[in-house]
Predict the 3D structure of the following.
Amino acid sequence: MSILVNKDTRVIVQGFTGSQATLHSEQAIDYGTNIVGGVTPGKGGQVHLNRPVFDTMEEAKKAVNPNAALIFVPAPFCKDSILEAAESGIELIICITEGVPTLDMLEVKKRVDELGVTLIGPNCPGVITPGEAKLGIMPASIHMPGKVGIISRSGTLTYEAVKQTTDLGLGQSTCVGIGGDPIPGSSFIDILKLFQNDPQTEVIVMVGEIGGTAEEDAAEYIQNNITKPVISYIAGQTAPAGKRMGHAGAIIAGGKGTAADKITKLQECGVHIADNLVEIGSKVAEVLSKT
Amino acid sequence: MNLHEYQGKALFAKYNLPVSKGVVIFEPEEALKACRDIGGSKWVVKAQVHAGGRGKAGGVKLVDTPDDAIEFARHWLGKKLVTYQTDSNGQLVNSILVEECTDIDQELYLSAVIDRDSQRIVFIGSSEGGVNIEEVAENTPDKIIYEPIDPLCGAQPFQARKIAKILNLNNAQTKQFVPMLQNLTKLFVERDLALLEINPLVITSGGNLHCLDAKVSIDSNAIYRQPEIAEMHDSSQEDPREAEAARNDLSYVSLDGNIGCMVNGAGLAMGTMDTIKYYGGNPANFLDVGGTATQERVSKAFKIILDDPEVKVVLVNIFGGIVRCDLIAEGVIAAIEEVGVNIPVVVRLEGNNADLGSQILSQAGVKIESINNLADAAKKSVELAK
């Protein structure tokens, strides 16, 4: 078992013929991901990476019946692509693109929720179930199949957590990058829920960062609903207030969203804290040894 | 991206929102014509900087004669205004807004933000204006209303009437407030705002609603489709190194410490700063070189980091995901040679081909400490910075 994606997931790539999409689709195919085709408006009928290209999601849905969409289109077109995928009847949409306008996401989020479609991202590394399927831009080599479920707002920080758990021989069930934007398609809570119900996942690592209250909300949810141990690391303990730290969502505004507040709340709710980035893996091992 | 008050008010005027008659000036001598064009016998002169707290810092003044307006402009233009919201260097004043004087009966508060929890644009209103709204929220939460706007339906009149109750508006003022709220929502959505704040929104002595201040911030991700607003960008209000980084598509934030950081990924960049602090050091900056750490980008990043005279050591932390670490190593060496780095550089490479990358670094003629373990690399940087 795993969550969201596995070897049977039938993936359609939107913006398939672009350079980034091509690079990452090639790697995904090498990894064994079942990419069934792609969509690039105006290029329907072509063959790319030995897979069919369609003009619209509707055509793709009829011809190759995908159940997950992976989006690489440029930010100005993401709203259109996400909505097109959602309306086509796809169950899972993963949007990698960074820089989507926040107001676009307000509308998109409302619509995908109405349709009951799961959206991951935008501005995220994607989702990987080690040994089965890679839908994203993460480096395959650092992952190994195992028991740690990882959720993160940041790409490279996820890789740190992955590498550390791989080095300790723990491996990962599924790793989900929910993205660093203020309005993410899925929250920590949405993914925690899935990991709780996944038998392969024995322990959950939640990598958060400054800005917003997603970690605080997750903390309360964990206290009331999650029986598996959760380890958390929060980035941005040294970040100044009022400055956007790279990610659109990573800003301490009006005194809210500090790392200290998040850590306090998580601890109150029984979450184990890795004080230091380099200690995520060892903290997981320590917690597991006590259970 | 933030706008100046005069730019925000120009936008307000386009959306039929009541703002004072005003003229922006860039030279002291223009004040005379500005006062005459506005008319009347009293004017308010306001230094334009991207920071609040201008009044208390002397950046806002009521004047009775055009000569006083000229004098105020002479005093401030080209100088830096320090307020409680700026750093100790302050913000450069390169324009002054001259406005007609408004007689105030009451000060209220109105703002709109994108609220992450409700995933809506939310209006925040309070009968307590002209003060710090966080304090009002803390001390008298019943005097504040939060009203979310549905992204598809937009602001409805009943929502304006709800807010009007908390603002204690009378019937006539409520009638003014309904189109005001709808126009503000229209402005927010059409111009891709991230924040708008009217503090204070006032009731004039004539009993009318009036926007006395306008703080407007635009979603940086949406600037590409807001050409008119992109033109309003004033880079003099930003840290010069941050502005230079932004021009090169690098994300940089200046900090107080002496360990320069170059990292790929925003989360890891924050994590690296924290790790330095954890081992007793102080980061000089946040810098995300992005997913593709090419030689060109690394060179630019080195230049920006080294422009900070406080920096005593540079810690490069790259998690080579898709990019191969041996290529990054070659890029770092070439960049160091190109830029001419005279201080110690600690490089931590992890991920694809990390060992080969370290080997290349250790064999290079330049002075680089290659340490693959992040904890050790951070400790070494802290030691070298002492």
Q: What stands out?
A: DSSP finds nine helices and 14 strands in chain A. The mean pLDDT of chain A is 94.
